[in-house]
Amino acid sequence: MTKPAFLITIDTEGDNIWQNHYRISTKNTHFLPRFQALCERYDLKPVYLTNYEMALDPAYIEFARNVLSRRAGEIGMHLHPWNSPPLAPLTADDGRYKPYLIEYPADQARAKVGHMTKLLEDTFQTKILSHRAGRWAFNEYYAALLLEYGYQVDCSVTPGINWQFSPGNPHGFGGTDYRDFPTQAYFIDLENIAKPGASQLLEVPMSMQYKYSTLLNILKKGFDRLRGKQRTPSMHWLRPSGNNLNQMKKVTESALAHSYDHLQFMLHSSELMPGGSPIFKTDADIEVLYRNLETLFDWLRHRTVNMTLGEFYTKSQQK
Questions:
Q1: Domain range for residue 220?
Q2: What are the distances in angstroms from CA 114 to CA 58, 76, 103, 109, 120?
Q3: Among 170-179, 193-202, 224-233, which is the least confidently predicted range?
């Protein structure tokens, strides 16, 4: 059996974005070298999906240039439209509501993608090929924009999750509904991003599995409907949450059992810093995180093949 690719994607953004609505800091930059060193011990090449404030941080620029110069990782694009130029308010308080890019007028969305792409390519003197949407929101127009600006890979799809219950613009329709999207990587259909097609944009979905059985999910949905509530099904992600090492292993075991072509791990850069996120608040929390990461990486080392998103794209084209 061919080993799947192991892909590490890091949403590289400001500190504690969950709470910091108006004053964005980037202190987590200084905690990235430790993570990079751990990855290199296991011959892993992280993809740092970089947003606006990090692309302006001198320490991050130095760090990322060093990673690129040694071919020890990849720099991609991550777009938070509410604070990414050119700025044009969409709601009464964009910092609070954090609207999705897919909620902006087409010309504003295009301008934001163009500005971020140029900023990253000018700063790092390399073609930016990989991308993840802010708050996981993606649609057909967004996909066409990525192709227009030369991107090869998107990794915004979270199979099974319906983000429509997570509002951006309070007068909008929420995020993207991914309940019927593939779990395997696929070149997308530009007319329907939920289907494989003939475009040159490769979609690499997040690795996750349902927390409960199909029957229990149906029962829970019916119970929520009776209570007047709507929720997306609970999922286990290949993403650390402090005490979920066993769950992450189960996600990988399921993918291996189904002969998936990839495993995609994700983390926010701010989660590598004490107090940078709601989950990892203390030095002790960070030490637990690193112990879990080391255990997971060691467990995967003989089960997977380490790649960047760009390398996975090249492999996928050769199939």
A1: 5-317
A2: 22, 14, 17, 9, 10
A3: 224-233
Q: In this structure, are residues 13 and 267 in contact, taking their beta carbons and an 8 Å threshold?
A: no
Of 232, 239, 227, whose CA–CA distance to 212 is shortest? Answer: 232
In the numeric block, the tokens 């289907």 are attached to 195
Residue 93's closest CA among 167, 25, 21?
21
Q: What is the pLDDT of residue 218?
A: 47
Report the pLDDT value the prediction gives residue 84, as an integer from 0 to 100: 97
- Residue 207 sits in a domain whose CATH number is 3.20.20.370
Task: State the first-to-last Cα distance of the chain, in angstroms, to the nearest integer.
Answer: 15
3: tokens are 């080993």
Strand partners, 153: 130, 202
Q: What is the pLDDT of residues 102-137, one digit of tens each?
A: 999 999 999 999 999 999 999 999 999 999 999 999
The count of other CB atoms within 10 Å of the CB of residue 199 is 18
Q: Indicate the pTM of the whole model.
A: 0.94
Count of structural domains within the chain: 1
224: pLDDT strictly greater than 60: no
